[in-house]
TrEMBL record:
GO terms for MF: symporter activity
Domain of life according to the entry: Bacteria
Compartments (UniProt record): Cell membrane
Membrane topology qualifier: Multi-pass membrane protein
Similarity field: Belongs to the major facilitator superfamily. Metabolite:H+ Symporter (MHS) family (TC 2.A.1.6) family.
Ranges where the record places region Disordered: 425-445
Pfam families: MFS_1
Function: May be a proton symporter involved in the uptake of osmolytes such as proline and glycine betaine.
Coiled-coil segments: none
Compositional bias (Low complexity): 426-445
One GO term describing the cellular component: plasma membrane
Domain Major facilitator superfamily (MFS) profile: 11-423
Name of the featured protein: Putative proline/betaine transporter
Length: 445
């Protein structure tokens, strides 16, 4: 009789659906920050300065992620992956719904951006605990030979969330300008309540991770998983964080900053920019799964490295094509960056999960991913907007992306390959502090 794959399929589906919903919540904020929030919450500033301030509130969610990563990583390593994922999904949905109800600057003055930042901060805490748990539920339920493919389904949740948010905003953008600014922008936030209810139902039906159950049965959870993770694996945590700079920066520079760049600098319509990102996501979705599966055969590092190198090569062509203001060349530019981005991002989940011991894995993955997002993805819209204000050109932004890709490439090369390899339990150190000796797949644990 064959192995029952239903627990794995339910875990992968729950990780994918829940991640897509949470990233929908996260991305409708970024879309609103690029297109609406400068007028609703920072109306006393010039448009570009207001956009910069709106992106600053966007970054608050990233700053909060390490806090959420430590809190929920501790709970996930102590009490299990499943219960934490239900909590993070619910908290994220409540915060998103509240943003849709917030009064604007015209109604309550300075308290409007203060409330916006506060809710955004809590939203970031929730998302800080989400990613690691979703990755582990998918990867830890999977056969070692298929971790890349099934882990990439978690990554697919991100572009699906972005596509959903852009699709909703694309429909809302059809409203008259006054209607969009007065009440239309609230609709995507309020719709989150229905999506979260669906995700909650799906995640409640998932079995706990088999690796966590094994840890709990054999020796019990770590007492202080976050502290132990840093002690054992501080070097891989930092290297993984730096390796993740490139896909995070590329994604947020193109899909978030790109919206305001196209509308305010190039002069194309909101609908055109939302349509471009939506079409790019259509390409990203199958590419993520393809490259995740490819990493099962070739290894995580070669596929990831190829993606980082491709993003560096495509950074200047992307911005030059966007600067044309013509839909065809702009779409080509977005497609050129979508493929190498998918190669790097589609490989990230299994790489993170396989580097760390299961008793501290939730904490280690959360901390690494949160640090990566604070200094990579979260800073990308602000750095790009600042460069544009200073130079009135997109070329320095492309240069910034190339530098980030170089940092990621060097950091990735310092990590060990994890495919078809497994670490022995316990903090047996290798040459790099926190990087344990690798033993062949199939040996005892």
């Amino acid at each position: 009789m064959g192995t029952d794959t239903r627990p794995r399929n339910r875990a992968v589906a729950a990780s994918f659906v829940g991640t897509a919903i949470e990233w929908y919540d996260f991305f409708i904020y970024s879309t609103a920050a690029a297109l609406v929030f400068n007028r609703q919450f920072f109306p006393d500033f010039a448009p570009m300065v207001g956009t910069l301030l709106a992106f600053s509130t966007f970054v608050v969610g990233f700053v909060a992620r390490p806090i959420g990563g430590v809190i929920f990583g501790h709970l996930g390593d102590r009490r299990g992956r499943k219960s934490v994922l239900v909590v993070t999904l619910t908290l994220m949905g409540v915060c998103t719904f509240l943003i849709g109800l917030l009064p604007t600057y015209a109604q309550i003055g300075i308290w409007a951006p203060i409330l916006l930042v506060t809710v955004r901060f809590v939203q970031g805490i929730a998302l800080g605990g989400e990613y690691g748990g979703a990755v582990l539920m998918a990867v830890e339920h999977s056969h070692p030979e298929r971790r890349g493919f099934f882990g990439s389904w978690v990554q697919v949740g991100v572009p699906v969330g972005l596509a959903l948010s852009n699709l909703v905003f694309l429909l809302v953008a059809l409203l008259p300008r006054d209607a969009l600014q007065s009440w239309g922008w609230r609709v995507p936030f309020l719709l989150s309540a229905a999506l979260v209810a669906v995700g909650f139902f799906i995640r409640r039906r998932v079995d706990e991770s088999p690796e966590f159950r094994e840890v709990k049965r054999e020796r019990g959870p770590a007492r202080r998983p976050a502290v132990e993770a840093v002690k054992r694996s501080w070097a891989p945590i930092l290297l993984c964080a730096a390796a993740g700079f490139a896909p995070g920066t590329m994604f947020y520079a193109s899909m978030v900053f790109g919206l305001s760049y196209g509308t305010d600098h190039v002069g194309v319509s909101r609908g055109t920019m939302l349509g471009l990102t939506l079409l790019a996501m259509v390409v990203v979705l199958p590419c993520l799964l393809y490259f995740g599966a490819l990493s099962d055969r070739l290894g995580r590092k070669p596929v990831f490295a190829g993606g980082v190198a491709g993003m560096a090569l495509m950074a200047f062509p992307w911005l030059l094509l966007v600067d044309t203001g013509s839909f065809g060349p702009m779409l080509l530019g977005y497609l050129l960056i979508s493929v190498p981005f998918s190669a790097a991002y589609g490989t990230l989940a299994p790489l993170l999960a396989e580097l760390f011991d299961p008793e501290v894995r939730y904490s280690a993955v959360n901390i690494s991913y949160a640090v990566s997002n604070v200094f990579g993805a979260g800073m990308a819209p602000i750095v790009a907007t600042s460069l544009l204000i200073r130079t009135d050109s997109g070329l320095p932004i492309a240069g910034y992306i190339v530098v980030v890709c170089a940092i990621s490439f060097v950091s990735l090369m310092a990590l060990r390959e994890t495919v078809r390899a497994r670490r022995p339990r316990g903090p047996a150190a290798g040459a790099v502090p926190g990087a344990d000796t690798v033993v062949a797949e199939g040996t005892g644990r």
